[in-house]
């Protein structure tokens, strides 16, 4: 669930789940279940419109608490003030255009909007509405206002909407909203420190085709890159994730660009880096590719001989974007999966690579024996071009992602 080292705090946290009146309100039931089953104390605050979609008995049964949308219930307990004051995290899912407008303008005509005005904890909005409503200048301005005040407004997903419509405006997957909520809660910081920043993350492993069915590849699962993308979204960033052959659901609020080969990864990263404040190259691009790709499947030879495969070097993406920066002041982060050899230890090889690539930070992993690949956990040393070295002990990849972003933020405008 939450990153290593933060679980005791997360289990005792008081979470307010606000639900506004959209068809996606039913999906908030799964979000509520994830928060309660992970040990959180959850208070559901629906709007009157939300109760038209999912009734109060459902929310009460799932949360184990009475549910009301009005400020007049239990007036002696002053719920319109007390709920927000005592919260450690507020998540509004779905957040309709109407709810976002009220929150941006400080309107307080029901229990949920009163709660938003009194909350002094982190607030996460997960919008859901038709594309035209999301793209309307009024909604765009309201979202910008909320983000400027420190709220995390997740970008909605693209997909099937109400009726036959499709487009951007779909509620992100409840698991993804939960992951962002837990990360925000674990950090305990009200103001997202990546708000207003555009970051690019690459993830996964590239494939270099020999023929239509065979390729050269590697063992990268993309888990660390996806953890980095989720963490950045939770810290308020506009995130572009360039994913190479990753079998993971798209992180909430993240623009995903899918690629296969190193050449495609190069083009996508270079294009996105032109407007990026930070680029984190967590992907594992192939160093070499075949000089020729067969149009047909390569057949076995009757005499048992094997075909000769000639390789050429792929472009060094990390070195290129580090030494020829497309945006002044950008922070570039690389990864080094090392095993150590006769020429040096893992850290010695990492320092050599850091100097050769020219990036600002290098995350060095010891992958001896296949460690790290496909595992939810990681450990690393983050080396800085300024001589810094941050040892990150064994823990979740989500926890490592937060430390990496801490290091990136500390280097902005330095």
From TrEMBL:
Annotated Gene3D superfamilies: CoaB-like, Flavin prenyltransferase-like
Name by which UniProt lists this protein: Coenzyme A biosynthesis bifunctional protein CoaBC
Function according to Swiss-Prot or TrEMBL: Catalyzes two steps in the biosynthesis of coenzyme A. In the first step cysteine is conjugated to 4'-phosphopantothenate to form 4-phosphopantothenoylcysteine, in the latter compound is decarboxylated to form 4'-phosphopantotheine. Catalyzes two sequential steps in the biosynthesis of coenzyme A. In the first step cysteine is conjugated to 4'-phosphopantothenate to form 4-phosphopantothenoylcysteine. In the second step the latter compound is decarboxylated to form 4'-phosphopantotheine.
Taxonomic lineage from the root: Bacteria, Bacillati, Actinomycetota, Actinomycetes, Propionibacteriales
Superkingdom of this protein's organism: Bacteria
Pathway: Cofactor biosynthesis; coenzyme A biosynthesis; CoA from (R)-pantothenate: step 2/5; Cofactor biosynthesis; coenzyme A biosynthesis; CoA from (R)-pantothenate: step 3/5
Cofactor stoichiometry and binding remark: Binds 1 FMN per subunit.
Annotated ranges, domain DNA/pantothenate metabolism flavoprotein C-terminal: 194-409
Cofactors that this protein relies on: FMN; Mg(2+)
Name of the gene encoding the protein in the UniProt record: coaBC
Keyword tags: Decarboxylase, Flavoprotein, FMN, Ligase, Lyase, Magnesium, Metal-binding, Multifunctional enzyme
Gene Ontology cellular-component annotations: phosphopantothenoylcysteine decarboxylase complex
Family: In the C-terminal section; belongs to the PPC synthetase family.
Catalytic activity: N-[(R)-4-phosphopantothenoyl]-L-cysteine + H(+) = (R)-4'-phosphopantetheine + CO2; (R)-4'-phosphopantothenate + L-cysteine + CTP = N-[(R)-4-phosphopantothenoyl]-L-cysteine + CMP + diphosphate + H(+)
UniProt keyword Ligase, yes or no: yes
InterPro entries in UniProt: CoaB-like_sf (IPR035929), CoaBC (IPR005252), DNA/pantothenate-metab_flavo_C (IPR007085), Flavin_trans-like (IPR036551), Flavoprotein (IPR003382)
EC numbers for this chain: 4.1.1.36, 6.3.2.5
Domain Flavoprotein: 14-159
